[in-house]
Amino acid sequence: MGERALHQRITADIEDKIRSGAWPPGFRIPFEHELTQQYGCARATVNKAVSALASAGLIERRRRAGSFVARQHIQSAVLEILDIEAEVTRRGQAYGYALLSSNVRRIDPADSDESRLGGGPCLEIRCLHLADGQPLALEHRLLSLDVAPSAAEVDFAKTSPGGWLLRHVPWTEAEHRISAVNPDRADARQLKVRPSDACLCVRRWTWRVGEGVTYVRQLFPGDAYDLVARFTPGAG
């Protein structure tokens, strides 16, 4: 097993113990030399995994004392990562889904958007989400097979990738970028709009303890999507 793969395994093993509650807040995780012996690897490999967990806020490092499971803080994001199927159903509409294409390829390091996932193989998926039979979102997604290798076995003709990811691959960090765009002719045909019509473009990246999970570009007809944030004045 390569150094990169083992580093990911150690990170995932510790994260799973934290998220399952097996290692509660305040629990001291094994010292790095203990993990080195457990996994039979170099100290640098263990240090990389522990550093990633600390950067993600899952553990706290205390000088001379070791590393401890952090207490998770309640946070509220302006934009949540929503399951489109669940949102359409919540609105009382009939959800529809169509897989347009799916293939395995390597992440393009020359593409500034997808290269943020890192390197390695990815599953590239293009699909269409519908509400009451009308196009709601055209989706282009890249899913890292280094982080989520089981995705290669999923039949995404029957399951939407976003919903599957939310149920099976936890994430620790996300970034949204939103813009208004005009679709190209091919996208306009899929969405049943004109190339001159305004569409909302949502680009999103998610990471799991520093490792890129997915990059997705979703294109919505301008009249089919609202951005809503409810908040109160901050103190201070």
Automatic annotation (TrEMBL):
Molecular functions per Gene Ontology: DNA binding; DNA-binding transcription factor activity
Protein name per UniProt: Histidine utilization repressor
Lineage of producing organism: Bacteria, Pseudomonadati, Pseudomonadota, Alphaproteobacteria, Caulobacterales
InterPro entries attached to this UniProt entry: Bact_HTH_transcr_reg (IPR050679), Chorismate_lyase_/UTRA_dom_sf (IPR028978), His_ut_repres (IPR010248), Tscrpt_reg_HTH_GntR (IPR000524), UTRA (IPR011663), WH-like_DNA-bd_sf (IPR036388), WH_DNA-bd_sf (IPR036390)
Domain HTH gntR-type stretches: 4-72
Transcription found in the keyword field: yes
Domain of life: Bacteria
UniProt keyword annotations, A-Z: DNA-binding, Transcription, Transcription regulation
Organism: Phenylobacterium montanum
CDD domains named in the record: WHTH_GntR
Transcription regulation is among the record's keywords: yes
NCBIfam families: his_ut_repres
A Pfam family per the record: UTRA
Biological process annotations from GO: L-histidine metabolic process; negative regulation of DNA-templated transcription
Gene it is expressed from: hutC
